[in-house]
Structure formats: C-alpha cells, structure tokens
Amino acid sequence: DQYMTVAMEEGHVIFQYNLGSGVATMKSDNTYHDGEWHHVEVARQQRNGVLKIASETIQAESPGNVKQFSSTPETMFFGGYPGEHDYIDITNEDFNGCIDNIVMSSVAVDLSKSKESIDTAPGCPIKVASLVSFDKSAPGYVKYDSPDGNGLQLVFKFKTEEPDGLILYTSTRNQNSYLSLSLAESALILRAAPGGELTTG
C-alpha cells in the first residue's frame, strides 16, 4: 500500500506517507483549529520527510529500504476523498474549513480549475462553524456577529423533517431593515426589507 496524506486530527496536523515498506508519520505538537490561517509545508525526499507549521519542524524517516513510489500517482484529492478509503492510519472524515495558496513543486495550484469538485464553494467565509442541531422540544438559536460590509455570501447545508422553521434572521437595531431565510410548507423563502421576497414554492 502506497500513499501520501496531510490531515488534521483533533486539531493536530499530521503528514504521513507509505512507500510500501511502512508508514512515516509526522504530527504537530500544537493544535491549529482556531479559525486562523496557518502556513503548512510538507516535503519528502526519498525516505525522509518533514512537516513545517508555525514554529514547529517535525522530521521522520520511513522504515525499510524502499525510497520511491512504484509509480507516479495520477490523482490528488484536497479536502476529502470520494467515498471511503481502506487505510486504517488515515481519517475518513472530510476537512471542514478553507484551503488556499497551494504550491506544488514550485508551481501554484488553482483549485478552481480542478478536474472535479464536490460540495465546495469559492472563497472562504469569515468564520467556519461546526455542525449544530436543533430539537423541536427545546427551541434554540445560535447568535453570531454579522460580517462587516454591505455584501453577504452564505453557504450551508441543512436537513430536517419539519416543513416550517426559521433558518436565518438578521436586522438593524430598529428592525426597519432585515433579512430572513425560512421554511414555510416545505418551500424556502428569502425575505429582505427593503427588497422583497424570493421563494422556491
């Protein structure tokens, strides 16, 4: 089994590869799931690997005598993997966050020109929120600071078995201007004042 991967597990950055004779693993001491940008550098020269992030430099050497992959990989995946792979040392949980400024062998990589892209969005939200759930028997909400500026791009996914419910609401202090997104009889309705209304129903 031959592979190379960069992943996050419990906030730690992990660089791993297997040339066919055993796994080399480099794991950051610190955690980096703080919502801030972090520069990561990984490199492999034959059996020797290095992971650099912030002030950390971690090195490792793969076991055995194999120094190269038996063939050049045809495809690389960023942010996740279609379906599930069979490597027990590598997480199957997709990345939740933003990736930018990729440089591979001194060549910049433009992810917008990928061969295939599933469930991704251009740009990066100001904050990346984790999954939240709401129970009908105990109504609740999540309060977030509104982004600066007049523009707004919102990307998210949801699932529910209820036909009605408020998904998003924001307004000025006097509520003269507002924006709401809701479900009504299973139709999505976007309302804005001033502005108007859009519905999928």
TrEMBL record:
PANTHER family: LAMININ SUBUNIT ALPHA-LIKE PROTEIN, PIKACHURIN-LIKE PROTEIN. This is Laminin G domain-containing protein. Pfam families: Laminin_G_1. Residues 1-124, 131-201 form the Laminin G domain. The lineage of its organism: Eukaryota, Metazoa, Ecdysozoa, Arthropoda, Crustacea. SMART domains: LamG (SM00282). It comes from Cherax quadricarinatus. InterPro entries: ConA-like_dom_sf, Laminin_G, Neurexin-related_CASP.
